[in-house]
Amino acid sequence: MKRFFLLAFVLGACLSLSATTTNPGKLTAKKEVIEQQLSDLNQIEKIIKEEGLTYDQLVAKYPNLVEKTQLSASASEDGMFENASGTPLGVPGFWWGFCLGWVGMLIVYLTMDEGSSRKKQVMNALWGCVIAYALFFIVYVGIVGASLASLY
Fold first, then answer.
1. Does residue 135 carry a pLDDT above 90?
2. How many angstroms separate the Cα of 141 from the Cα of each of 23, 130, 144?
3. Quick one: which of 129, 138, 133, 136 has its CA closest to 94?
């Protein structure tokens, strides 16, 4: 029985590792874009250090470079967390419940502000918890059933 579970675990781990293939073409394209953006930022940094410019002076003297890099005068969180909608770490409640069970539900409940959004996310965490336990039960019954069937 122990060998069966060990074999199932090792086989599952091997299959999950082999299923994670990447498309090198996409990575190369993204790498080139990132390198170009970093090159532009390095150029701006060099100009600022050499000429001792402020942001306003940089915009007046090099408007195309500032526009190309989309620099702004102030750091803003707008857009950075727009999909988070107040959930813990930006992770929807369903996944907290699915991965952590009742602990995930508790995390969602304690970390969110009072309101309808919290109630909705806690319900999502509950559904995630129920689905995770149902899947666990189905897999467990399948494994136990398969092992018992092999005995007869």
1. yes
2. 37, 16, 5
3. 129
Distance CA 109, CA 98 (A): 15
Scan for tokens 């199932």, then name that residue.
Answer: 8
Q: Please answer whether residues 126 and 134 qualify as being in contact, where contact means their C-beta atoms are separated by less than 8 angstroms.
A: no
Distances (CA, A) of 135 to 6, 94, 99, 139, 150: 20, 14, 12, 6, 22
In angstroms, rounded to a whole number, what is the distance separating the alpha carbons of residues 116 and 49?
50
CA atoms within 13 A on the CB side of 4: 9
pLDDT digits (tens, 9 = 90+) for 48-94: 888 888 888 888 888 888 888 777 766 554 544 444 467 788 888 89
Could you give the CA distance from residue 99 to residue 102 in angstroms, rounded to a whole number? 9
The contacts of residue 109 (CB under 8 Å, 6+ apart) are: 118, 122, 125
- For 111-129, write each residue's pLDDT tens digit: 988 888 888 899 999 999 9
- Of 90, 85, 94, 88, whose CA–CA distance to 126 is shortest? 94
